[in-house]
Amino acid sequence: MTEEVEFRGLFRTSPSMNLVPGRWYLGFVCLTCSHRFGVMDDPNETGGTKVGGRGGFIVACPGCSATHSYAADRMVSFQAATAQPAAPVGNVELG
């Protein structure tokens, strides 16, 4: 079942800093650096939430710190990455 969320008004918010791998979030794509970041959990928990309304959000990107105002209909649903990054190799002396 698809849930619909409608926002009205202007909201000043912060990005979600501790995304849980595999969980779904609603957020934005930064207008400056194209980093995708979450601002809230996806209430549908499947990525099927439709967002609309005349509301907006003012939020700073956690990637580049640029602050922008986003219309609610620009909100995207995404699943946090489930793969762990590879550990850095460090300094290796070639012989």
Task: Give a description of the structure.
The chain is an all-beta fold and 95 residues long. It has one domain (4-79). Helix content is 0%, strand content 37%. The chain contains no helices and 8 strands. The strands form 3 sheets. Strands 2-6-7 form a 3-stranded mixed β-sheet, with no helix packed on it. Strands 4-3-8 form a 3-stranded antiparallel β-sheet, with no helix packed on it.
Indicate the proportion of strand residues: 35-45%
The spatial strand order of the largest sheet comes to 2-6-7
Tell me, briefly, the overall form: globular
* Alpha-carbon Rg, integer: 16 Å
The largest β sheet comes out as: 3 strands, mixed
Outline the low-pLDDT stretches: 85-95
**Integer tally of domains:** 1
What are the secondary-structure elements, in order, as H or E?
A: EEEEEEEE
List the helices and strands and how they pair.
Blueprint: E1 4-6, E2 10-12, E3 24-29, E4 36-41, E5 50-52, E6 56-60, E7 67-71, E8 76-79
Parallel strand pairs: 1-5, 2-6
Antiparallel strand pairs: 3-4, 3-8, 6-7
Task: List key phrases describing it.
95 residues, mainly beta, three-stranded mixed sheet, three-stranded antiparallel sheet, 8 strands, disordered C terminus
